[in-house]
Amino acid sequence: MDKKGFSQHISRQYNEDLEQIITRVMTMGGLVEQQLESAMDALVNGDQAKGEEVITSDYRINAMEVELDDACTNVLARRQPAASDLRLIVAVIKAITDLERIGDEAERVGRMALHLLEEDRRRSPMAEIAALGNQVKGMVHGALDAFARMDAEQAVRVAQEDIKADAQYDAIIRHLVKYLEDNPKSVPPVLDIVWATRSLERIGDRSRNICEYVIYFVKGKDVRHTSFEQMAEEATGDRR
Amino acid sequence: MSARDLNLWYGDTQALYDINLDMYNREVTALIGPSGCGKSTFLRCLNRMNDLIPQVRMKGQVSLEGEDIYDSSVDVVQLRTFVGMVFQKPNPFPKSIYENIAYAPRLHGTGTSRSELDDLVESSLKRAGLWNEVADRLDTAGTELSGGQQQRLCIARAIAVNPEVILMDEPASALDPLATATVEELIHELKDNYTIVIVTHNLQQAARVAGYTAFFHMGKVIEFNDTDTLFTNPAEQRTEDYITGRFG
Q1: Which of A3, A41, B14, B69 is the residue whose CA sits 20 to 30 A from A70?
Q2: CA angle, A73 as apex, A70 and A75 as ends, to 5°?
Q3: Distance from C-alpha of A153 to C-alpha of A237, rounded to nearest angstrom
Q4: Is the residue at B101 inside a domain?
Q5: Average pLDDT in chain A
Q6: pLDDT per residue over A143-199, tens digit each?
Q7: What's the pLDDT at A2?
Q8: What are phi and psi of B70, to 5 degrees?
Q9: d(Cα B153, Cα B137) in Å, to the nearest integer?
Q10: What is the 3-state secondary structure (H, E, C) of B56-77?
Q11: Would you place residue A4 in the very low, low, confident or very high pLDDT band (cuts 50, 70, 90)?
Q12: How confident is the model over A54-107, as pLDDT tens digits?
C-alpha cells in the first residue's frame, strides 16, 4: 500500500466511505483506550467511580463494532474493493473484533476491581500489575497508531512488546500461586486478581493481532502464526 | 499458447510493446486494462485477425503448442479452427440454429454425413449449455434467440470445429446479469477442455472466471499473475491504481 491514502479514487464518494471507516476505527480505538485507562485506575487505585464507569460504558464500543461491520459490509457490496482497499476492509473487520474484545477485557478488569474494593490491596503485587497494565496500554496505543499511520515496521515493534507482557504476566501469576500456597484461605479475592491479570495479558495478545492486520493491510502478507523474525522480515521487505 | 517479444504497429503508431505472455493450457486467462491499452489488439494477434487490417505490422512470435502461427506455411483458415473467437456482440449467421453450428464443420469437411452433423450440432449445443433451450426448434433463425442465447450459440459454433483455444472479446458486456452469469458458468465448464483467453472491462468478471490475469497498460503487459494475487496484492502500483479505481 502506498501512502497516498484513500483520497485518490476516481469516485469521491468511495474516498469518503473509506476515510470515514478509518476515522471510526480510530474513534473506537480511543474509546477502548479510555476504558482500559479507567479499568486500571479502578484496579490499582481502588477508584470505584471509574470501575462503574467502565462497566456502564462498554455498550458504546459494542455499538461502534456493529456500525463499522455494517459500513464494511456496504463497501463490500457496493464497491467490490480490490487490492489495498480490499485488504483495508478485511483488516478493519478483523481489527474491530479484537478492539471490541479488548473493551470486554477492560470491563472485566473493572468488575474485578469492584470486587476487590473491600480487600486489603497490600497483599497483591499491585505495582507489578500496574506495570503490566501500562505495558498493554502502550501496546493498544501503539497498534492503533501503526494502523493510523499504515506503518508495518511500527506494527512489528509493537507486536514484539507482547513478549514483555507475557513475561510480566508469568511473574505475577507465579507470585500469586506462591501467595495462595501460603494463605489458602484467601482464594476468592486472589482469584479475582488472577482474572484481572489474565485479562490484561489477553489485551496484549489482541493488540498483537491488530498489529498483524496492519502488516497484512500494508504489505499484503498474512503473518499470523509466524515467528517475530518472519513477521519482521515480511514487514520490512518489499511488497511480494 | 504463448507470445514472445510481440510488437505491433498500426501504421507509425506502436500499439503493442514487447509482449511476453503465456496462456496456460486448460486455464482461463483474462486480459484487463483501460480502453486503448492494447488488450483487444493482442487478442486478435492470437488468431491472426489483425492480418485483415491494412497497415498493421507485427514483430515477434505467437506459438500454439510450439508451432509459430505466423509461419508462412500456416493456413490461416485452418488456424482459426484451432483458435476460435467469440465477439462482444453476438453475431450468429442469419441462418437456422442448426446451420449456425453445422456450417463450419461442413466447410472444413469435419462433418459430412447428416447423422454426423446432427451429432455434432447436439454435442456442441450441449457443451454450450443451450441444447435444452433449443432442441425442439433447431430450424429457427439464430438471430431470434435472446442475447444471452445468441452468445452461447456463438460459443457452440466456435466449439463445433473442436478448437484448442477460444478467444473471447468482452463476451458478456452486452448481456444482462443473468445471461452474464450463464456465460460465465459456461466459461468455467469449458475450461476443462479448452484454453480460454478473455478480454474484459469488467474487473469482477475477470476475478470470477479467470485463473490468471494480465494487466495491460499503454501497449505493455504491466503485470501477469494468478488472479487471486493480482486482485488482492498486486506487485505494481499501476495495477493497484487501476483495479482500485484510483487516478493512475
Answers
A1: A3
A2: 115
A3: 10
A4: no
A5: 93
A6: 999 999 999 999 999 999 999 999 999 999 999 999 999 988 888 889 999 999 999
A7: 46
A8: -100, 5
A9: 13
A10: EEEEEEEEECCEECCCCCCCHH
A11: low
A12: 999 999 999 999 999 999 999 999 999 999 999 999 999 999 999 999 999 999
Dist. CA B126–CA A187, nearest whole Å: 75
CA distance A151 to A134: 22
Q: How confident is the prediction for chain B on average, in pLDDT?
A: 94
Domain of residue A186, residue span = 12-236
Q: What is the mean pLDDT of residues B108-122?
A: 87
Q: What is the DSSP letter of B161?
A: T
**Domain count within chain B:** 1
The count of structural domains within chain A is: 1
Q: Is residue A5 part of a domain?
A: no
| C-beta atoms of B246 and A4 within 8 A | yes
> How far apart, in whole angstroms, are the C-alpha atoms of residue A222 and residue A151?
15
Do the domain assignments include residue B153?
no
Tell me the CATH number at B22.
3.40.50.300
In a domain, A138, yes or no: yes
Q: What percent of chain A is predicted at pLDDT more than 70? A: 96
Length of chain B: 248
B233/B225 Cα distance (integer angstroms): 10
pLDDT band at A119 (very low <50, low <70, confident <90, very high): confident
Q: Which residues of A touch B240 (CB under 8 A)?
A: 2, 83-84
Closest CA to B30 of B197, B165, B155: B197
Spatial separation of the C-alpha atoms in residues B22 and B128, rounded to whole Å: 26
Strand ranges of the sheet holding B28-32, from the earlier edge strand across to the other edge: B83-86, B165-169, B195-199, B28-32, B212-217, B220-226
Q: Is the pLDDT of residue A3 over 70?
A: no
Give the residue numbers in A contacting B (CB under 8 Å), as ranges: 2, 4, 8-11, 14, 80-87, 220-221, 239-240
Residue A37 C-alpha cell reads as 485507562
Closest to A87 (Cα-Cα) out of A210, A214, A237, A234? A214
Chain A residues with beta carbon closer than 8 angstroms to that of B233: 83, 87, 220-221, 239-240
* CATH number, residue A155: 1.20.58.220
A80 Cα to chain B: minimum distance (Å): 8
Q: Which domain holds residue B86?
A: 2-91+164-243
| pLDDT > 90? residue A17 | yes
Q: Is B196 within the bounds of a domain?
A: yes
Residue type, A60: R
- The number of residues in chain A equals 240
CA dist A93 and A69 (Å) reads 6
pLDDT confidence of residue B233 = 95
CA distance A140 to chain B (A): 27
Q: Report d(CA B241, CA B221) in Å as an integer.
A: 15
The reply to whether A131 falls in a domain is yes
